[in-house]
Amino acid sequence: MTTVQRFRLGAGDALLVIDMQRDFMPGGALPVAKSDALLPVINACMHRFDSKGLPVFATRDWHPPDHASFVTEGGPWPVHCVAGSDGARFAEGLAWPATLRLINKGEQRELPGYSAFEGTQLRAQLQRQDVQRLFVCGVATEYCVRASVLDALKLGYAVVLLRDGVRAVCAQDGARALREMQQQGAILASPEALQ
Ligand code: VGL
Ligand code: ZN
Q1: Is residue 86 part of a domain?
Q2: Which domain holds residue 184?
């Protein structure tokens, strides 16, 4: 028998939504398969946090046009999420809370910018709000979700990864990243387990 772990949300908890932008949706410049299926799951999670007065953070991949990760610059990725472009806009259909805290990342040309903590004010903002536990969802599991989760764990945050709230570019790499994050201390939870 498996026991379903439930999470009672309260002070010290925050939701972190990673890179739910058009370029990562089906049809975008760097599509993540079935990432649009995350929209209702993430909307439900955002509503749950917001209705309890708990903070919701959202990251945007927000690159300069000559970012070093682009194929045009010798990097691995198609040009994506150029700051201010259509592809960098949030996916249609997300019900953001009025109090959404926005974090731009990947703004420095030479840095990969996978992690929500790299070159951003996220940690300072979390400290200001006394956040100790982060619930994480978004894309892509094996890149920006992974890097953000591993950094959060290193910084001492408890991390709950929302199953069905994340999608990978490559399913196999995504599964490996999930195992790695769990090994490093992240807990995998179903969004329905949030109370
Ligand atoms: C991402 C590849 C390049 C992500 C961002 O959001 O996971 N992946 N830039
Ligand atoms: Zn990127």
Answers
A1: yes
A2: 13-193
